């Protein structure tokens, strides 16, 4: 990891309450899909904000974030040319084994963005299907990226875009049609991941999940982001994760 003083290239709204900020690091970015960055937002906000990497193009790295509190409210006002500290890459990302040819991506909420990084890294090498759930039509984003998958199904909670269902239900519908992947990679709200874990255990599918937790330091020192493992032990989401085998963590 490296603490960059990165230059903002653009910072724009891409959906309802969702923004994308692109930094130029000044050198070729070496980031694995599923990793994240910890960025300063300026002003009086001392704690950095951990945000998953969405995509990498040479020296430019794009993060997508949802407006939730004062920190992200501050971040959305940052303009092009501003220089911010960004500590990255952090955490353990997604890995797909050589023998895992068919990959299913299941995502919801801001969890869709790290899955874009998976698609970009493995596109062409794997057969990738994406099952992506949004709250409503206003929250739909990233469609141009997911459209590059071998199969892309977008759904919404209210049926305003695609079918009325969530991402797990869309994936389950595909399983019922006999289309089984070799591995499932997922990121999204905890209730979504909990439902997915129940499904993949029933179907005996290998599944890896990227957890979303509040973080302080982002490097495993403060223990703010500790999660429970199924063996009774604890794990730091920032340092030991954020990607875990679904069998290993309590959801």
The gist of it:
With 251 residues, the chain is of the alpha/beta class. It is 18% helix and 36% strand. It has helices at 70-75, 112-122, 143-146, 167-176, 190-203; strands spanning 2-15, 18-24, 36-39, 49-57, 60-66, 83-90, 102-108, 127-134, 151-156, 163-164, 183-187, 207-210, 226-228, 234-236, 243-245.
Give the number of DSSP strands.
15
Supply the number of helical segments.
5
Broad shape = globular
Overall pLDDT score: 92
What portion of residues is helical? 10-25%
| Poorly predicted tracts of residues | none
- How far is the first residue's CA from the last residue's CA? 28 Å
Strand arrangement, major sheet: 10-9-8-7-11-12-15
The SSE string, one letter per element, is EEEEEHEEHEHEEHEHEEEE
Radius of gyration equals 17 Å
Strand content: 35-45%
Q: Kindly name the structural category.
A: alpha/beta
Largest sheet: 7 strands, mixed
Task: Please explain how this structure is put together.
- The protein has 251 residues and is α/β, with parallel strands linked by helices.
- The chain has helices spanning 70-75, 112-122, 143-146, 167-176, 190-203, and strands at residues 2-15, 18-24, 36-39, 49-57, 60-66, 83-90, 102-108, 127-134, 151-156, 163-164, 183-187, 207-210, 226-228, 234-236, 243-245.
- It has a seven-stranded mixed β-sheet, sandwiched between helices.
- The longest helix has 14 residues, at 190-203.
């Amino acid at each position: 990891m490296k603490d960059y003083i990165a230059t903002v290239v653009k910072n724009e709204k891409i959906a309802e309450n969702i923004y994308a900020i692109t930094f130029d690091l000044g050198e070729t970015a070496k980031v694995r899909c599923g990793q994240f960055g910890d960025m300063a937002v300026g002003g009086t906000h001392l704690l950095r904000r951990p945000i998953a990497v969405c995509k990498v193009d040479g020296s430019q790295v794009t993060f997508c974030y949802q407006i939730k509190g004062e920190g992200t409210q501050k971040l959305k006002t940052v303009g092009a040319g501003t220089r911010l500290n960004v500590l990255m890459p952090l955490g353990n990302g997604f890995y797909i084994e050589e023998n895992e040819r068919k990959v299913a991506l299941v995502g919801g909420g801001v969890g869709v963005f790290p899955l874009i990084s998976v698609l970009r890294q493995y596109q062409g090498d794997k057969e990738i299907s994406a099952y992506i759930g949004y709250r409503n039509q206003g929250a739909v984003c990233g469609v141009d990226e997911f459209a590059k998958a071998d199969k892309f199904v977008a759904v919404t909670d209210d049926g305003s875009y695609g079918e009325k269902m969530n991402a797990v239900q869309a994936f389950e519908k595909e399983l019922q049609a006999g289309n089984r992947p070799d591995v499932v990679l997922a990121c999204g709200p905890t209730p979504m991941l909990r439902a997915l874990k129940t499904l993949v255990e029933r179907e005996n599918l290998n599944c890896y999940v990227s957890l979303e937790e509040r973080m302080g330091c982002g490097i495993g020192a403060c223990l703010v982001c500790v999660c429970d493992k199924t063996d009774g032990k604890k794990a730091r989401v920032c340092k030991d994760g954020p990607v875990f085998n679904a069998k290993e963590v309590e959801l």
